[in-house]
Design a protein that fits this description.
- By secondary structure, this protein is an alpha+beta fold.
- Among the domains are: about 100 residues, Jelly Rolls, CATH 2.60.120; about 80 residues, Sandwich (Jelly Rolls), CATH 2.60.120.1050.
- The protein is built from 3 helices and 16 strands.
- It has a 4-stranded antiparallel β-sheet, with no helix packed on it.
- The longest helix is centred in the first third of the chain and has 28 residues.
- The N and C termini lie far apart (about 175 Å).
């Protein structure tokens, strides 16, 4: 085996040759290698998030902030919706209105007012309370007893009663004509007068009977009436609803016969000096 020549000391003053280093211990080899190794280890140990583009960091932060903001807005909207939503209130109970009272056809046609009662002796004048009414009168005397209506100029409007001596009966005014304002009474004795609405007249029943003048409400259907009268003076029977007069009987003295009645509502006006009867069939 060959060996490298070893330095042999020479003579005095001779220097030894420099020693030769192995290749891996030479500085020009170790320094670059160390740098490469350090860079590689740094890359392997570093966090990928830390090596990301710094400019993207704010966007990432904003993106992460968005989820926390969204629930807050949703919650506020839910609260507003809950507080502004209409609150169901109980449905009010509507009570049925009671049926309107039936209109009295006599009141509707002839009106109404407070009943007026007057009494006296001898002649007198009474202001009328309504344009149509019943007049119930009595007289105790021996001479003429006359009741008539006057118009606004104090002219005679209608003759209601014209008897001699005592009287008791019911008459009416203003059924077919209006304009009466006063009631004139001519008498020689004591008298009494009651003026009442037409609707206060009694309802006719069958058979119906009476004496003297009378007024009744007829509310039946069309019928045939058998009528009698026992007296010495005028006997008149009329039926009216206030728009037309239907003269059924106009006789003097006694009477017996049958006449047709129209269906009501209407009024039966009886003028008589004796007893009378009316029976429908």
């Amino acid at each position: 085996m060959s060996t490298s020549p070893q330095w042999q000391p020479g003579g005095p003053g001779s220097a030894a040759p420099p020693a030769t280093r192995p290749w891996y211990r030479k500085k020009r080899i170790l320094i670059p290698a160390g740098l490469i190794l350090a860079v590689g280890m740094a890359g392997a140990l570093s966090d990928p998030a830390e090596t990301a583009d710094p400019a993207a960091a704010p966007a990432s932060s904003a993106t992460q902030a968005t989820p926390s903001a969204t629930p807050t807005k949703t919650s506020e909207a839910a609260v507003v919706a809950a507080t502004s939503a209409p609150v169901d209130s109980p449905t009010p109970t509507v009570e049925a209105e009671p049926p309107a009272p039936a209109v009295d056809p006599y009141t509707e046609r002839f009106g109404t007012f407070a009943t007026v009662t007057e009494s006296g002796t001898g002649d007198s004048v009474i202001k009328l309370p309504g344009e149509a009414a019943l007049v119930t009168a009595t007289h105790k005397g021996s001479s003429n007893f006359v009741i008539e209506t006057l118009d606004a100029s104090n002219q005679m409007h209608d003759l209601l009663v014209n008897e001699i001596g005592s009287y008791s009966g019911v008459v009416s005014y203003g059924l077919q004509t209006d304009g009466a304002t006063m009631l004139k009474i001519t008498a020689d004795g004591a008298w009494s007068i009651q003026i009442a609405p037409i609707a206060t007249a009694p309802v006719a029943t069958s058979p119906l009977s009476g004496t003297g003048d009378a007024v009744y409400k007829y509310e039946g259907s069309a019928a045939v009436a058998a009528v009698t009268h026992s007296g010495a003076s005028n006997f008149v029977l009329q039926q009216t609803d206030g728009t037309w007069p239907n003269l059924l009987i106009n006789e003097i003295g006694t009477y017996q016969g049958s006449v047709p009645l129209l269906s009501g509502p209407s009024l039966l006006l009886i003028t008589a000096d004796g007893a009378w009867t009316i029976a429908t069939s």
